[in-house]
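thought: fold this chain, then report.
action: predict
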Amino acid sequence: NLFYNVPARRKFLKSDPVELKHIMDEFHRVTLANPEIYFTFHHNGNEVYHLPKANLKQRIIGVAGKQMNDKLVPLNEETEVATFTGFAGKPDAAKKSQGDQFIFVNKRFIKSNYLNHAIRAAYEDLLAKDMYPTYFLFLEIDPANIDINVHPTKTEIKFEDERLIYNYLRVSLKHSLGQYSLGPMLDF
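observation:
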């Protein structure tokens, strides 16, 4: 009943399940960006999520499910331009639909087809074309090098040097996947 007194806004609401999905998507974004904060999520009197303070991996498992525990590869690369941290899913965690794909820049959730392409390029020899990798990636970059005023929702940003970020992300992710022997192997 959030828009009970605002009939114009209320008439644009979708069905309850659709609106619940939108709320849960935003809840996931906020909780993943802030694992040091305790969160609970209740729906119709039932506790859906109980997320105590945790490290990032524990928070990801709390949000995405226990099955993710053995399917995550850590990413931790520091460059002169940005720091790349987080977790990427092993190839067996890939799905036929986009789902657990999160990119955060300075703890702000963003959508970027360009960076998604860099991530898919890092997985190029590991996944079939119709599969989507799972990832929870965080970029820390000097705010002077980004523009967040691209879209009203602030989920799209522009980087000062997008190609450099693209290449660093692709190489960093490929390096992490390679460290865990997930890259293609040649056997003579």
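thought: worth noting. The longest strand covers residues 82-89.
final: tokens above.
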